[in-house]
Write a structure and sequence with these properties.
This protein has helices at 6-12, 23-28, 52-64, 85-89, 103-107, 155-158, 170-179, 200-214, 234-244, 289-293, 332-350, 404-422; strands at 36-37, 44-48, 69-73, 79-80, 99-100, 110-113, 117-121, 126-129, 133-135, 138-141, 145-147, 184-190, 219-225, 249-252, 257-261, 266-269, 272-275, 278-281, 285-287, 309-310, 313-318, 365-370, 376-386, 391-403. With 426 residues, it is of the alpha/beta class. Helix 3 (52-64) packs parallel to helix 11 and helix 8 packs parallel to helix 9 (234-244).
C-alpha cells in the first residue's frame, strides 16, 4: 500500500492543521478539475467527504458495479485517520502511520475532486464546489463533524490557539504544542455526548499522561469531564488512570466547561475555575456545515430507518458521524460499514431493485483504545432492526482488561481496514 511520506505531506500542507495544500501536491495525487461536470452519461454517484465513510462507499461501489461513475469530493489532498491518532499524540507512532494518499482510490476508477463542497442543490441535483458544479443521480453525504465553539463563552475568539484534534490534521498543531510543553497543568475537557468517538477523549487522557510520564515532564493531565463518569469502557479507563498514571492524571467528573479566558489561562466550569498551562478543550459537536446548507438537518441529519436515506430526500444518503436518530457510535468502523451498506443499496437501486426488496444489514462496530504504548481495551456493538418498534436495537460487549494482545488486535484492525480503503485492487 502506497503512503504519502511525512516530509512530502508536511512540506505541501498548510502551516497549522494542513487544511490546504499546494496545487502541485493536489495534482500529484490525481485531483481532477471540476470546472463543470455536466449531466452524468450513465449513473453518477457523488460523495461528499473522503474519510472513512466516503472512501468505503467509493471503493465498494466500484467493486459492486464498475459502470457506476463515482465522484469523490474532498477538501484535503490526503487522508489522515483520527482513529489511532492518540498514538501519534503520545509519541508512539509517527504521522506516516496515519496518513494515506488517494492513488489507489483513483486507480480503482473514482474521480477525485480535491475541493470543498459549498452547496448542495437538491432540486437541481448538483453539488457546487469551490470551482464548479457537479451533477449527480445519487448523493452520499459524509462530511464528518464540526465544532460548536459557540457553546463555550470566549472559545470562538481564541480557537486558533486551541486545536481540538478531532478532525484530520489538527493533530499536527496539537502535537507541536505538546512537544513544546515544559510542564504544569494540561487541561483536557470532555463534552457531553453526542460527539465523535465516545472513548476518544479518555484514550487521549491516558496517552497524554503516558507522554508526560515517558518524557519525565513534571506536569499533570487534569481531565474535566462534563459527564458523571467515562461514557465508554469506564472500568478500563478508570483502572488505567489509577494504576498507570496516578501521579499524572487528575480526573474530575461533572465539570462542564462553560467559558475560556485564554489571556488568564483559565477555564470556567460548573465546579469552578481551573488554571491551565496547556489546554485541549473538546467542544460539543454537530454535523458538518454542508448538512445544514443542504437542508438535511440542523445539528444532525435523520435517516429513513433502517436505511441511510435522508428523511428529506430519497436521492440523498447520509452516513457516518452526521446521523442523529440512530444509536450507532460516531466511529470510523461504523462509517466504514455504513459505506459498504450504502454501496450495496445504491448498486441494487441502479440495477432496478425496488426499495422493499433491498436487504438492510446494520453496521456493527468495534473500538479499541490504547492506554499506553502497547496495551488496549475495546468495546463492540451489534445492531439489529426491531420491525415492530421500528427502532434500532444495540447490544454491547466490552473488554476492560488492558493487554498487549488487545493492542496487537487494534493495530491489525486498523491496518486491515486501511488496506481495504487505500490498497490496490487484487
Amino acid at each position: 500500500m502506497k503512503k504519502v511520506s511525512r516530509r512530502k505531506f508536511l512540506k505541501a500542507s498548510a502551516a497549522v492543521g494542513a487544511a490546504a495544500a499546494s496545487s502541485g501536491f493536489a495534482q500529484e495525487f490525481f485531483s481532477r478539475p471540476s470546472s463543470v461536470l455536466g449531466p452524468a452519461r450513465g449513473n453518477r454517484v457523488v460523495i461528499i467527504g473522503g474519510g472513512w465513510g466516503g472512501i468505503s462507499t467509493a471503493r465498494h461501489l466500484r467493486r459492486k458495479n464498475p459502470n457506476i461513475e463515482v465522484v469523490l469530493i474532498e477538501k484535503n489532498p490526503a487522508f489522515m485517520s483520527c482513529p489511532m491518532s492518540n498514538l501519534y499524540l503520545g509519541g508512539v507512532k509517527d504521522l506516516d502511520f496515519l496518513v494515506f494518499d488517494y492513488t489507489n482510490v483513483v486507480k480503482a476508477g473514482v474521480t477525485f475532486v480535491n475541493e470543498r463542497a459549498i452547496e448542495v442543490n437538491r432540486a437541481g441535483r448538483y453539488v457546487r464546489t469551490t470551482s464548479g458544479i457537479i451533477f449527480y443521480n445519487y448523493l452520499v453525504v459524509s462530511p464528518g463533524i464540526d465544532y460548536m465553539y459557540e457553546a463555550i463563552q470566549g472559545y470562538s475568539e481564541v480557537k486558533q490557539f486551541l486545536p481540538v484534534g478531532f478532525k484530520p490534521f489538527e493533530h499536527i498543531a496539537l502535537k507541536r504544542q505538546l512537544d513544546n510543553f515544559e510542564g504544569g497543568d494540561l487541561v483536557l475537557a470532555i463534552p457531553r455526548p453526542p460527539y465523535r468517538c465516545p472513548p476518544g477523549p479518555y484514550e487521549r487522557a491516558a496517552m497524554l499522561a503516558y507522554y508526560l510520564k515517558t518524557n519525565q515532564i513534571k506536569g499533570k493531565v487534569i481531565v474535566l469531564d462534563a459527564n458523571p463518569g467515562p461514557i465508554s469502557k469506564a472500568p478500563g479507563f478508570t483502572a488505567a488512570f489509577n494504576d498507570l498514571y496516578k501521579d499524572y492524571i487528575q480526573y474530575i467528573p461533572q465539570a462542564e466547561v462553560t467559558a475560556i479566558d485564554y489571556a488568564k489561562k483559565t477555564v470556567k466550569t460548573s465546579l469552578g475555575e481551573f488554571q491551565f498551562d496547556l489546554a485541549n478543550i473538546i467542544p460539543p459537536m454537530k454535523a458538518g456545515e454542508i448538512v445544514r446548507t443542504a437542508g438535511l438537518g440542523d445539528r444532525w441529519a435523520n435517516v429513513q430507518l433502517p436505511t441511510f436515506l435522508s428523511e428529506r430526500d430519497d436521492r440523498v444518503y447520509v452516513i457516518g458521524d452526521v446521523m442523529g436518530n440512530v444509536p450507532y457510535p460516531k466511529s470510523g468502523q461504523v462509517a466504514y460499514n455504513d459505506g459498504k451498506i450504502v454501496a450495496e443499496h445504491i448498486a441494487q437501486r441502479i440495477a432496478g431493485k425496488k426499495l422493499a426488496e433491498i436487504p438492510n444489514p446494520l453496521p456493527d462496530n468495534i473500538c479499541y483504545s490504547f492506554v499506553n504504548s502497547e496495551e488496549s481495551i475495546w468495546v463492540s456493538h451489534k445492531h439489529n432492526w426491531d420491525a415492530a418498534a421500528r427502532q434500532v436495537r444495540q447490544q454491547s460487549t466490552v473488554d476492560n482488561q488492558r493487554s498487549k494482545q488487545n493492542g496487537g488486535l487494534a493495530l491489525e484492525w486498523a491496518r486491515g481496514l486501511w488496506g481495504d480503503m487505500f490498497g490496490p485492487e487484487t
